[in-house]
Amino acid sequence: MLKLDSHSAGRHFLHIPGPSPVPARVLRAISYQTIDHRGPEFGQLGLAILENIKKIFKTKSPVIIYPSSGTGAWEGALVNTLSPGDLVLMYETGQFATLWKKLADRLGLKTEFIGKPGAEGWRYGVDAAKIEERLKADTAHEIKAVCVVHNETSTGVTSNIKAVRQAMDAAKHPALLLVDTISGLGSADYCHDDWGVDVTISGSQKGLMLPPGIGFNALSTKAIEASKTAKLPKAFWAWDEILESNKTGYWPTTPSTNLMYGLHEAMEMILAEGLDHVFARHQRLAKACRAAVEAWGLEIQCQDPAVYSPVLTGVVTPDGVDADQLRKLILERYNLSLGTGLGKVKGRMFRIGHLGDCNELSLLAALSGCEMGMKAFGIKLKGSGVVAAQEVLQD
Ligand SMILES: *Cc1c(COP(=O)(O)O)cnc(C)c1O
């Protein structure tokens, strides 16, 4: 039988880029007794959550909270704003952009996928100039939405969303801007209102330090207007009834009561640390992680230093080294979980998550596990990544 509480000495090091470790404070909050989701206390909790979540997205507009994974929130964004056969411009940055496109195709949207061709495209962020060029050519305004992934979790590349907005404005194109920051929210700076995003999609299990099970859509006035005429079938995902119920702090269906306790607690923690401090901590850890990779003499998956992800680092394994075999050895020997290579980069890279409830020593432990594991696997390393990371962190 599978024993989920079987425990080797010491802690498990969960360094995949989501789900990320859940702090004890959040776990304790989740363990409170489940209450009536239509009772007076829940309404107060609901209102507090709906107010605080706006601070996390940096928006004054409403944020929809679904009891779903991030994929559900992707669907929510599309079905509320678009109609069957609408053309959607999507940008291939990696596996998550690819999966979102697949979902859009299945919903009956027409999708156009642009980006650098081949696996090479998975090493760069969105090129806003390409979007501008395509939108300028669309004089009939057939394109109804532009969809981009802010933090591409499969590669460790963060795209410049502000530049995408500027490109859309420069093309004077009326398409909606839909952005996935499922793995960026609460780890990488994100400004829903200032960047002019119409729908921002996110989830609970990455930077927000919660277990999986909550999905978000942050809205704009333009997105809410679009939802009134959009014709893709929608029922569970429909924003209108949720927005109505939310006015008094409730939801039309049963929210994930205990995860909502956790969300409230996690936001208290993030806001107490201060968003700017949270982002600076992630940048610092990411820098140390990259220093380690460079000291090992290995390649970082992201090829553009301007868009290195503060959330995770993709490490390309040397030719002939199966990254998944290496990950297996590291998990078995050191109880350290690293992210697998997905899609086009399967077996060619692994991912080190440094998001959410992560500090200097948790990162250094993970880097130690990687370093010992790679040596045990027979990989010739140029030098010590752990020492290089320590030097960055001692500054
Ligand atoms: C994790 C993730 C998703 C998928 O979310 P699920 O919760 O697995 O449905 C989508 N996009 C990005 C960028 C992600 O990191």
TrEMBL record:
Gene3D superfamilies: Aspartate Aminotransferase, domain 1, Type I PLP-dependent aspartate aminotransferase-like (Major domain). It is an enzyme of class 2 (transferase). Keywords: Aminotransferase, Pyridoxal phosphate, Transferase. One of its GO terms (molecular function) is alanine-glyoxylate transaminase activity. Residues 15-341 form the Aminotransferase class V domain. The modification N6-(pyridoxal phosphate)lysine is found at K206. One of its GO terms (biological process) is glycine biosynthetic process, by transamination of glyoxylate. Its EC number is 2.6.1.44, 2.6.1.45, 2.6.1.51. InterPro entries: Aminotrans_V_dom, PyrdxlP-dep_Trfase, PyrdxlP-dep_Trfase_major, PyrdxlP-dep_Trfase_small, SP_NH2Trfase/AEP_transaminase. Substrate binds at R351. Its cofactor is pyridoxal 5'-phosphate. Belongs to the class-V pyridoxal-phosphate-dependent aminotransferase family. PANTHER family: ALANINE--GLYOXYLATE AMINOTRANSFERASE, AMINOTRANSFERASE CLASS V. This is Alanine-glyoxylate transaminase/serine-glyoxylate transaminase/serine-pyruvate transaminase. It comes from Polynucleobacter sphagniphilus.
